[in-house]
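Reading a protein record of the kind used here takes only a little practice. The record below shows the convention in full:
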Amino acid sequence: MHFIFDLDDTVINTSHRQRLLADGSIDLDFWRANCTVGMVARDKLLPLASKMQGAIRDRLDVIICTSRVMGAADFAFLRAHKMLGNTMLSRMGGDERGCGILKLDKLQALAMSRGIQWQQFAAESIMFDDSKEVQTVLGNAGVRVIDPVQYNSSQLKVA
């Protein structure tokens, strides 16, 4: 099995670094300006993060698949919280594709690099991602995608 985790709003609360535009999309200029060491250090773990950490501890195939352009502060945060999986798939600087097609392309390339047919890889994967676009695109490509928002919300109410 492949356990695929998004980061923002799935296992990490980065709301203090986010601002939405009028159309509901993320203000990427604001996001980029707030990817400093100090701001990343203020990120908080969401309840699903403990499941990801457990899967990593159990040496399962944990894949991080994020739309972020990862920086040193991001890797330091993940390392400090024992959240570095087997594989990191992230956006390259200058790649402006939508998150659904970006993640589909990254995961298809990963499957190919492992010598696995896409249909088999998709059937053996569970993905956790809060993005409706990702849920639609990857779901249509055969991946079971779970929206973590309800789980995280219910666990935060219990805590």
Q: What stands out?
A: Strands lie at 2-5, 12-13, 44-45, 61-65, 87-89, 125-128, 144-146. The chain has a mean pLDDT of 91. The chain is about 45% helix and 15% strand.
